[in-house]
Amino acid sequence: MNAPASRHQLTTGPVGRTLLLFALPVLAGNVLQSLNVSVNAIWIGHFLGEAALTAASNANIVLFFLLGVVFGVAMAATILVGQCVGAGDWDRAKRVVGTSAAFFAAISLAVALAGFALAPQVLGWMRTPVDAQPYAIAYLRIIFLALPFMYFYTFLMMTLRGAGDSKTPFLFLLLSVALDITLNPLLIFGVGPLPRMGIAGSALATLTAQLTSLAALLAWLYRRRHPLRLHRGEAQYLRLDREILRALVVKGVPMGMQMVVISSSALVMISLVNAYGSQTTAAFGAASQLWTYIQMPALAIGAAVSSMAAQNVGAQRWDRVARTAGAGVLFNFALTGTLVAVVYLFNRAALGIFLPHDAAGLATAQHLNAIVVWSFLFFGVGFVLFGVVRATGAVVPPLVMLFVSLWLVRIPFAELLQRRLGADAIWWSFPLGSLTLLVIASLYYRYGGWREARMLAPAPAGGA
């Protein structure tokens, strides 16, 4: 099946300009999602109290874990679609979309039903404070109802990125965030005919926003006759293709495990910090808020590089794959470097957003920022190179390298040198881990066998 050439082809045009224009909407979307979480937390924390905020925080940990579980599979679908579009094989691209959609539908429904029934037990396992549990159960059960729409929405957005379109996902994400932020106070407090729902209203706002934006995105895809849409007479694409399903799982799980490696190492690091008391923990927490935004450019560029490299791998444009890697590293240094410079120039003022200006932990936060922040430049290079190599299907080496840098270098250094360096051992472990990742990722990119990796076996002649 031959579809018309995509308007979002990433295999032609200036590499740097194409990558930057593709990455910026991804970056803006990441910022939007973080702001959405922060705004919702403000409404809950300021107007519903500490117990409600604790409930939302515990429920969101469950949500982020569940979204992280499917992140790798969605990323695998993105790469598969990108390779198929780059090769001009639209029939196989539709098979990827159909199999992925059926898989996501089955998984999301199973998780939603189980989660709705087991919400109290899940929160009990997490040792959620007793006074927060009634709020958390009400909030989490509605979130579980929203989960199928969240999963499918995430899948659609990442599929569009694989096809070379990052602008459309951003616009519909903007719609979703705007609806969520607008509906939160209306449903929490009850305005006009709307009932006062408390914390359940915040969860219902998320459900409504996701469902509305998903419906609008689907309507847009069919109205614009998108080449990857499935229409009447194409139900066969929804039948599970064993080879594609195997690639989604076998390639997707290691990419999802990267999120587990990062989050689990973060839990260990915070436990080490906690031993130094609440003042140090508050300082670390404030700095971590800034670090989230500093790392966003590298994450966005890594995702953009993956989509762009995947299309060029499919088109066998290896020259453009190499140039995409180079452009991605330069953009990481430019964008992340700008944020790093801003933090160093306004270190105290930036931390003052999260800590009172007379807080005892402010000096500690400034000190640890001075040690850590520059290293995110080099951690970002690792993520950009990961984006390139996984575009071929080489997904296990990035997982191993991330495990080495975080679990075999950063955590042991932080633990073993505390007697000599005190809390500074924790802070200096961040640059050490980042430099380790830079070195091993660069060596693997230069000498590794990632160019021979495959997501799927080559398509038969004719592209069917």
From TrEMBL:
It is found in: Cell inner membrane. Pfam families: MatE. The keyword Phosphoprotein does not apply. It is a multi-pass membrane protein. Keywords: Cell membrane, Membrane, Transmembrane, Transmembrane helix, Transport. PANTHER family: MULTIDRUG RESISTANCE PROTEIN YPNP-RELATED. The chain crosses the membrane at residues 20-43, 63-85, 97-118, 138-158, 170-191, 197-222, 248-273, 293-313, 325-346, 366-388, 395-413, 425-445. InterPro entries: MATE_fam (IPR002528), MdtK-like (IPR048279), Membrane_Transporter-Flippase (IPR052031). Its main location: membrane. GO terms for molecular function: antiporter activity; xenobiotic transmembrane transporter activity. NCBIfam families: matE (TIGR00797). One of its GO terms (cellular component) is plasma membrane. This is Na+-driven efflux pump. It comes from Mizugakiibacter sediminis. The keyword Cytoplasm does not apply.
